[in-house]
Amino acid sequence: MKGRVLVLDHLDGREIAALMVDGHLEELALDPAGDEPLPGAIYRAVADRPMKGQGGLFVSLPGGLSGFLRQVSGISPGQRLLVQVTGPAEPGKALPVTTRLLFKSRFAIVTPGAPGLNISRRIRDEAARDALEGLASAGMAGADEGLGLILRSACLGADEDDIAADIAQMRDLAEAMLGDLQGGPELLLDGPGAHDLALRDWTDPEPDEVAEGEGALADHGVHEALDALLAPRVELPGGGHMWLEPTRALVAVDVNTGPDTSPAAALKANVAAARDLPRQLRLRGLGGQVVVDFAPIPKKERHILDQVIKAAFKSEGEAHLAGWTPLGLYELTRRRDRLPLAGLLPGAGR
To answer: Helix, strand, coil proportions of the chain in percent (round to 5)?
Structure first.
């Protein structure tokens, strides 16, 4: 099916959202089965003592949970502070949290501690930027000192009343929450569920269709896409394939040419793998250190692959491309921003 389809359904009683683009799965969100804190949740926390050698400190969260804050300066043991969950907790480890809070809606992001009014760089039309600057100034007039605002790219062409309403809602929420430092550890704002996340972050550009309700997953091929993601082997255009296998230490990726024995087969398979690798890692919920064993190519061709990899990971957020090792492997790191799909759907098959 051509076009962008946003699929909102339930799987095993949990919210699931999928963005299908021309029949291919491009984004996926699935709520955890238990009470796992969702990224974006905001807590009132209590600071513990700094951890020497770890560059941060633990904070106490409600329900016996612990968070790890990569910050020490200016924080005293016992101090109350607001923290936001930045990603899932790895097994046996504390939740990663930050004091740099973001109050995010579809159109607006209010940024405590980062004052200023900013418009998404993706909006280049000067008349549109001028109109949005006016909305931003009006919406933040008289706001608490230190609050900033970012207007997102989804504002382009949106109704001004809707944008103004988002600004007001996020500003009011931020101002109310920033003063709530009395008491013990407490959840103040839950992170967005799969449906809310998708409607907030995946609707720019607008989808051609929003498919909701029972049967939406089957109607749009999401079950088959999930099965493919749960398999380690990924078929590539041209007959090649790659294997993605997570271990405790790293994610190992192996690229093979398949039956094609032509001189250009290795480079073609490597280029196809490099283009699809960011999507595969994102949808599978894989991060940390990634080591890729590309199909053998002459060193003089590596610069071609370097450019493809760089372009493929350009929009992937926090990814660091370390490059080639002396053994001819390619290394990169990617921030873990969601739970591994295999853990959310253990043994799934449809």
So the answer is: 30, 30, 40
Name, in order, each residue with C-beta under 8 angstroms of 331's C-beta and a sequence gap of 6 or more: 289, 290, 291, 292, 322, 323, 324, 325
What length is written for the chain? Answer: 350
3-state SS, one letter per residue, for 1-23: CCCEEEEEEEECCEEEEEEEECC
Burial 211-222 (b: 16+ CB within 10 A, else e): beeeebbeebbb
pLDDT of residue 55: 82
Degrees (nearest 5) of the Cα angle 153, 200, 102?
A: 80
Q: Residue 101: how many CB atoms within 10 A of its CB?
A: 20
- Choice between 259 and 290, residue whose per-residue pLDDT is larger: 290
Q: Can you list the alpha helix ranges (DSSP code H) found in 41-143?
A: 126-140
Residue 117 has pLDDT above 90, yes or no: yes
> Do 149 and 125 touch, CB atoms closer than 8 A?
no
Q: How many CA atoms lie within 13 A of 278 on its CB side?
A: 17
36 burial level (CB within 10 Å; 0-12, 13-18, 19+): middle
Average pLDDT along the chain: 94
Helix (H/G/I), strand (E/B), else coil: 112? strand
Distance CA 310, CA 266 (A): 19
As given in the structure block, the two tokens for residue 331 are 């290394």
d(CA 97, CA 93): 12
What is d(CA 266, CA 37) in angstroms, rounded to the nearest whole number? Answer: 43
Strand partners, 83: 43
Query: pLDDT band at residue 346, thresholds of 50, 70 and 90?
Result: low
Phi then psi for residue 121, to 5 deg, are -65, -20
How far is C-alpha 63 from the chain's CA centre? 26
122: phi then psi, degrees, rounded to nearest 5:
-70, -15
This prediction has a pTM of 0.92
Give the integer Cα–Cα distance in Å for 101 and 267: 44
CA gyration radius for the chain? 22
pLDDT band at 350 (very low <50, low <70, confident <90, very high): very low
Q: Is the peptide bond before 112 cis (omega within 30 degrees of 0)?
A: no
